[in-house]
Known about the structure:
Helix content: 25-40%
Number of helices: 3
Strand content: 35-45%
Distance between the termini: 18 Å
Strand order of the largest sheet: 2-3-1-4
Amino acid sequence: MQQYMIYAKDGTEAGVFERRLSVRKLHFEGVQVLKDKGNYVLGGALLDDAGKMIGSALILQFEHPTELQNWLDNEPYIQYNVWKTIEIHKFGVPPPK
């Protein structure tokens, strides 16, 4: 499977943090699906100096790029315009020794 590092920053306009909280449950439901399918490696929130969530970082893995695109098309933080900028980089987690 190809692994990817996703670095997503929330928008800074008024109401984004509240929007994030309102769809967080949907986001976590999607993360659980990723875990169940073996696509989730690691993930968490990006925090500002005060500890407030301002984005997300994830390591995901997919057999085909179309699976990555399908996840992007259905990710609630994208659908509800929480994440404003998203960087996706191919990533390599070495196998355990």
